[in-house]
Design goal:
By secondary structure, the chain is an alpha+beta fold. The chain folds into 2 domains: 250 residues, PPM-type phosphatase domain (Phosphatase 2c, domain 1, 4-Layer Sandwich); 131 residues, Jelly Rolls, CATH 2.60.120.10. 31% of the residues lie in helices and 28% in strands. Strand 7 and strand 8 form a beta hairpin. 48% of the residues are buried. The N terminus is likely disordered.
């Protein structure tokens, strides 16, 4: 069931009271409207819901809503004899504790005051340490009791700071960003199916199971934590959910339609009901957070963003477009950062992806190198299959990642923009070919 921290949460506005709406013995919801989050520039509404799986004795999902800290999280536990429930709860308790320390709050506030690149990286490192601590705690708890041996959990955390949301992800629960023109799947399932797609060397058959997980909290000391952030604006919505919600809703159009429900509580009910109607029997849990009006004005940090816009606008995908068209196209983009020596994945978040390099350096399989404004894997936006070696990161590199489905959704909302973007894709492929991006 949803987990919250009422002792630390700000009281809801008297004119817009908190609503708690138990629907049945296995269904709980939490909801707050007009919430003020310290160090975050927007008011927010949020709702959380969890429904126990059909015929199950325990709900092994767990949710954390801590608006006082701008912290929201979701975990899907795994293991018999309620061990999954224990793993999920332990992981959330550690997340709440670690991100509530004075040291952690100081790092968060430092970024809120000075959104420099190094302070942003410090936040990612904080999130990685936090999930690492959760992993250690679950492993230790599993060793203390025989019935808990081998338990594990997925874990997704979002931290809202200034005008951005920072995500940390392990496992196969998911985080989405719902914008007026696109619903973006932000996280990549750490499962066998998606691992094969990411490599770009093999496309698994559709029947290939997403299980087993290749990465989760509690299963091994070496943990891989995916981190990313998104810029937020009024009208955006963050949705985090366990696989009991999305497993039976593979139609992204239908999922996106349900995610545009009038309010967050309605969204939670609609998604869980749709999953049940499709026969999904797993535990199903959701956290939904809507970004409302902006009420904090800070010292502008438009400088770095303006530089990124200039870089992006010079990319073969967006060159010579108007500023308004560039901004419209960016609704499909998510900034990510890859470390030196890593490969650039060809498929992420259950779909093929293209990239625009913001800064850093990438080496193509041909040996050619690309820097800022370089375009990678643009054939993905046409959903073309290209296999072979992946580009390698020569130094820490920031990229704008664009999924095929998100790009298609943005294009569907603006046909004139779509015509210009597809024209540029065709021109680029005609001169560079499907595997040799040119800068």
């Amino acid at each position: 069931m949803p987990k919250s921290s009422p002792d630390h949460s700000p009281a809801p506005s008297p004119s817009r009271p908190e609503a708690s709406e138990p629907e049945s013995d296995d269904w709980m919801t939490e909801r707050q409207l007009g919430v003020v989050i310290p160090s975050f520039d927007f008011r927010v509404d949020y709702a959380a819901a969890s429904s126990m799986g059909v015929g199950r004795a325990h709900n092994e999902d767990a949710l954390l809503c801590h608006p006082r800290s701008g912290l929201f999280a979701i975990a899907d536990g795994m293991g018999g004899h309620a061990a999954g429930e224990v793993a999920a709860q332990v992981s959330l308790e550690v997340v709440e504790r670690e991100l509530g320390t004075p040291e952690a709050r100081n790092e968060i506030e430092r970024y809120a005051k000075e959104p420099e690149l190094e302070n942003r990286r410090a936040l990612f490192e904080l999130l990685e340490r936090t999930l690492g601590a959760a992993n250690d705690a679950v492993i230790q708890a599993g060793r203390k009791e025989a019935s808990h041996k081998g338990m594990g959990t997925t874990l997704d955390v979002v931290l809202t700071v200034r005008d951005r949301a920072f995500f940390a992800h392990v496992g196969d629960s998911r985080a989405y960003l719902v914008r007026p023109t696109a619903t973006l799947q932000l996280t990549h399932d750490h499962a066998a199916y998606d691992t094969l797609r990411t490599s770009g060397k093999r496309t698994p058959a559709p029947r290939f199971s997403r299980r087993p997980l290749t990465n989760s909290i509690g299963h091994r000391r070496r943990l891989v934590v995916d981190t990313l952030f998104v810029d937020l604006a009024a009208g955006d919505r963050i949705v985090m959910c366990t696989d009991g919600v999305f497993n039976s809703l593979e139609d992204e159009f239908e999922f996106a339609r349900l995610c545009r429900a009038a309010d967050d509580a309605e969204l939670c009910r609609a998604l869980i009901q749709a999953a049940r109607e499709q026969g999904e029997q797993d535990d199903a849990s959701i956290v939904a957070l809507s970004v409302k009006e902006r009420f904090v004005k800070r010292r502008s940090d438009a400088g770095p963003r303006a530089r990124d816009i200039v870089t992006i606008s010079s990319s073969p995908l967006l060159i010579d477009l108007s500023a308004a068209q560039v901004l419209s196209a960016l609704a499909a983009g998510v900034e990510v950062e890859l470390k030196k020596g890593s490969e650039v994945p060809r498929a992420v978040a259950s779909d093929r992806v293209a990239y625009i390099i913001l800064d850093g350096m990438v080496e193509l399989p041909s040996g050619r190198t690309l820097g800022a404004s370089g375009l990678l894997m643009v054939e993905s936006l046409l959903d073309l299959v290209v296999r072979g070696e992946l580009p390698k990161v020569l130094e820490r590199t920031r990229l704008l990642r664009i999924r095929h489905d998100d790009f298609t959704e943005v294009c569907a909302h603006n046909m004139q923009l779509a015509a210009e973007l597809y024209k540029r894709i065709a021109r680029h492929l005609a001169t560079a070919g499907p595997t040799g991006p040119c800068g």
